[in-house]
Design brief:
The structure is a homodimer. By secondary structure, chain A is of the alpha/beta class. The first copy, chain A, contains 11 helices and 5 strands; from the N terminus they run H-E-H-E-H-H-E-H-H-H-E-H-H-H-E-H.
Chain lengths: 271, 271
């Protein structure tokens, strides 16, 4: 956890009721125009810090994005990481596990996709689906998913101790906002591809999902890898807060390019 | 750890001095001919148990083989696993890490090679090189390798809790036996390819290696994944003990094929 955690960071051990968090909160940001200009600056800063991380090449950052359907995971990636070079930044979108993945423990496919040192890896959905969707849709019994909270904490702590900093975001929207966004998808021929009939099944299970997320936020917010609850009804607020969080984390990590092992004055470049 | 661990299993927390273990010990096996006949039976039994593990398809076994050069890692694999179908049994021989592997934590390449459920994976060398060779050859400073014992214990415990049973063997030979075997390699044109000049550098560091292994055997013998010290001067003893250990582990795991979901009497096969 950061030495001075941001207010939307979940302190380890605290109780989480999502109803206590207003998804339309602006977290002190009052003007959209100013926030957008600020996001532009944040993006440049993020690109700069990522380049230093890449030059240092000794640690990695893993960003985990979770949220209900239409919470804005894709949009966050597009808007926040837009200026970061894809050389040092990779996204992996997790869908249903393959046969090969199912034939391993649930964390195996996570290990396969971990970012190289020097890189920012972004998980669009993640191993948390194995304690959220798997639980809510009853894909596996409690005896399977119950030990996973502890297994996740143990694994994340281990990764952290070996140089991968994990930053987890729960993008928090409400039911009405989801309805608007799903309607948008249906109405707009350019967005319709994002709509899947299964979205409505999950929407019916809204309360179960919220409850499963509350358990995740409570049980898997650790010193090594805390969760951040980002109010996400307003996209400009969501983007600003995610960017601010990542900048704070990277500034604390303070990556430094290795010192040059040569004296530049002595190096001649042949004509 | 097995409910009734074999005598060559290192109890967690015990102190290990390799000088106290006779590499020429026969561990109660007195006759080579009888032991060889017994190994033949063990191999069939192992093949049978592995097939049940494969049919069950819910857990995996990971065999870790470590030892000094010429301790017999390759020979053990050849002689013990010889009857097990390669469909459900894969060997991975670890060498120096690749650039991509070096750009991740030291356990990442282990994760990449974990056996699928239903399979036996064999590691010919392993992550233990990262606290043995790396330490003895001073490839990394103490600040890098010291935390790894704990990281290994944590990771192995996690794997175990998710269904991968880890069985670790240290093949214990003495300096004289190594000398004989290296000379054999040099003298026999069919074995000469196995000889590498670096073997002699490592031989010079014999005591440092023994000491590094003592630390591994003491610090990484856990309830979840204990080490076995196998006297390996006599190949027939080594093979018999490794086979016995694996059979004991698999019998305790007692894998069972899933029950048929159909009534065979009702199924007609079209002519």
């Amino acid at each position: 956890m950061a030495k001075t955690p941001l207010p939307w960071c979940v302190r380890p051990g605290s109780r989480v009721r999502l109803k206590d968090f207003d998804p339309a909160d602006t977290r002190g940001l009052t003007e959209k125009e100013a926030a957008l200009a600020d996001l532009e600056r944040s993006r440049s800063r993020l690109a700069e810090l990522q380049e230093r991380l890449y030059a240092e090449n000794r640690r990695a950052v893993l960003v985990v994005l979770q949220g209900m359907d239409a919470a804005g995971k894709d949009g966050t990636i597009e808007h926040v990481f837009h200026s970061v070079s894809p050389i040092g930044c990779q996204v992996h979108s997790f869908t249903a596990p393959s046969d090969e993945e199912r034939d391993h423990d649930f964390l195996w496919r996570v290990a396969m996709r971990l970012p190289r040192y020097g890189n920012i890896g972004i998980f669009n959905r993640s191993h948390y689906e194995d304690v959220v969707a798997v639980r809510v849709r009853r894909i596996a019994p409690r005896s399977v998913w119950e030990p996973r909270y502890e297994q996740i904490n143990c694994y994340e702590k281990l990764l952290c101790s070996m140089g991968t900093r994990i930053v987890k975001f729960f993008l928090h929207i409400d039911r009405d906002e989801q309805r608007e966004r799903l309607l948008d998808r249906l109405r707009d021929p350019n967005k319709a591809w994002k709509y899947q009939p299964g979205d409505l099944d999950d929407r019916k299970l809204w309360n179960d999902y919220q409850h499963a997320y509350e358990d995740v936020l409570e049980r898997c917010s650790t010193e090594a890898a805390p969760w951040h609850i980002v109010p996400a009804n307003k996209k400009w607020v969501r983007n600003a807060l995610v960017a601010q969080t990542l900048i704070a984390v990277l500034e604390e990590m303070d990556p430094k390019p290795p010192k040059a092992s040569f004296d530049w004055r002595k190096i001649k470049i042949p004509k």
